[in-house]
TrEMBL record:
<keyword id="KW-1133">Transmembrane helix</keyword>
<dbReference type="InterPro" id="IPR036388">
    <property type="entry name" value="WH-like_DNA-bd_sf"/>
</dbReference>
<dbReference type="InterPro" id="IPR000792">
    <property type="entry name" value="Tscrpt_reg_LuxR_C"/>
</dbReference>
<keyword id="KW-0238">DNA-binding</keyword>
<keyword id="KW-0804">Transcription</keyword>
<dbReference type="GO" id="GO:0006355">
    <property type="term" value="P:regulation of DNA-templated transcription"/>
</dbReference>
<feature type="domain" description="HTH luxR-type">
    <location>
        <begin position="298"/>
        <end position="363"/>
    </location>
</feature>
<feature type="transmembrane region" description="Helical">
    <location>
        <begin position="267"/>
        <end position="287"/>
    </location>
</feature>
<dbReference type="InterPro" id="IPR016032">
    <property type="entry name" value="Sig_transdc_resp-reg_C-effctor"/>
</dbReference>
<dbReference type="Pfam" id="PF00196">
    <property type="entry name" value="GerE"/>
</dbReference>
<keyword id="KW-0805">Transcription regulation</keyword>
<keyword id="KW-0472">Membrane</keyword>
<dbReference type="GO" id="GO:0003677">
    <property type="term" value="F:DNA binding"/>
</dbReference>
<keyword id="KW-0812">Transmembrane</keyword>
<protein>
    <submittedName>
        <fullName>Regulatory LuxR family protein</fullName>
    </submittedName>
</protein>
């Protein structure tokens, strides 16, 4: 029995030794299954630094935001233009990334200020395997070929076409013609999105629509239909939630500029009623002032007042005090006060100031 136990113990020891020996290879194979790799070949002139950068885009809104803080990987470009970017730290769900180069006189600026494009966007996950080749004979990224992903091929073709159209649009020197061409470009983007099989590639195109608020007012159904496509294909994706936020902001914008059945907020009704009441009150006040003025114009104050009251009214308008009026008319001060109070009642005023204003208006 002891001998059998020794044999079992020896077998377990040999198994553990083999397992520990194979463990590094097992871990390496597991990592290689879930690892991305981007190989590329570009034609860099002396104007460009021999380094390539890969930047993460956490939200589609950041497609056009330049920041070195988004860099997640970089690699050296050899003299023949070859580079490799690899790792296993990307999210499992597909997201947008920017592959870009930097000029020698720049530090970490991702977008150049001229018509030269120094970047391309890619749709990657942690197992993507791509080959990016700059096939153009001219400037960087004039013509790009992507192998290993049909979605990235379509995305690259769209971006290249869009970039060329934007260059032509910026060259137009009249506002009216530029606006017309911008609407035409937006229409072509919407057509591309509708025909695109992968909604994630379509989402990339949606964020290239110029003035989305105005475009939403004209084509709201397009945006709502695309939301349904995103939820069906990528229900839990980060970008689906981002698009929901975009759509909510567009609906809010439309809610402010026009009436929307079943979406209009209650406070809009309250504001409309409040404005209506305010306008009615203002019209009544104006009508009252006008009526009062007409009545005042019809009153013959010469017949309405006694001779002494007319003299007191004239004295008030002249700026005399009660004591001065009493001296002029040879009457007691208390009598002057009594006459003034009676005068106010006949004139329909409340005080000396109103009496003076009425006197001046009668001239």
């Amino acid at each position: 029995m002891y001998s059998g136990f020794a044999i079992f113990r020896g077998s377990r020891t040999r198994f553990m030794q083999k397992f520990l020996f194979l463990l590094p290879f097992l871990l390496l194979s597991i990592q290689s299954v879930h690892a991305y790799e981007l190989k590329g070949q570009v034609k860099l002139s002396e104007d460009w630094q021999p380094r390539v950068y890969l930047a993460s885009i956490q939200s589609p809104e950041n497609l056009f935001v330049a920041s070195p803080d988004f860099v997640i990987n970089e690699a050296f470009v050899d003299p023949d233009g070859n580079f490799t970017l690899s790792g296993n730290d990307l999210p499992e769900d597909p997201r947008f990334y920017r592959l870009y180069f930097v000029r020698n006189n720049s530090l970490a600026i991702e977008f150049t200020n001229d018509y030269q494009r120094n970047f391309i966007h890619l749709l990657l996950d942690n197992s993507t395997q791509l080959m990016v080749t700059d096939t153009g004979g001219g400037e960087l990224f004039d013509h790009v070929k992507i192998e290993g992903s049909e979605a990235n091929t379509i995305l690259s073709d769209f971006e290249q076409s869009y970039f060329q159209k934007r260059i032509k649009l910026n060259e137009i020197n009249t506002i009216a013609k530029r606006d017309f061409q911008s609407q035409s470009l937006n229409r072509s983007i919407r057509d591309f999105v509708v025909k695109c099989e992968d909604p994630m590639v379509g989402l990339f195109a949606v964020y290239h629509i110029d003035d989305r608020e105005t475009d939403f007012l004209r084509n709201a159904n397009f945006y709502f239909d695309f939301q349904e496509r995103m939820k069906a294909a990528y229900p839990k994706a980060l970008y689906t939630a981002a698009y929901d936020d975009l759509l909510n902001s567009l609906v809010g914008y439309r809610d402010l500029v026009c009436e929307i059945p079943k979406i209009t907020k209650p406070w809009r009704t309250w504001i409309i009623w409040g404005q209506s009441i305010l306008i009615i009150a203002l019209l009544l006040w104006i009508w009252k002032l006008k009526s009062r003025k007409e009545v005042e114009e019809k009153i013959d104050y010469g017949q309405l007042l006694t001779e002494k009251e007319r003299k007191i009214w004239e004295s008030l308008a002249a700026g005399k005090t009660n004591k001065e009026i009493a001296a002029d008319l040879f009457i007691e001060l208390s009598t002057v006060k009594t006459h003034i109070n009676n005068l106010y009642k006949r004139l329909g005023v409340a005080n000396r100031k109103e009496a003076i204003l009425l006197f001046n208006s009668q001239k």
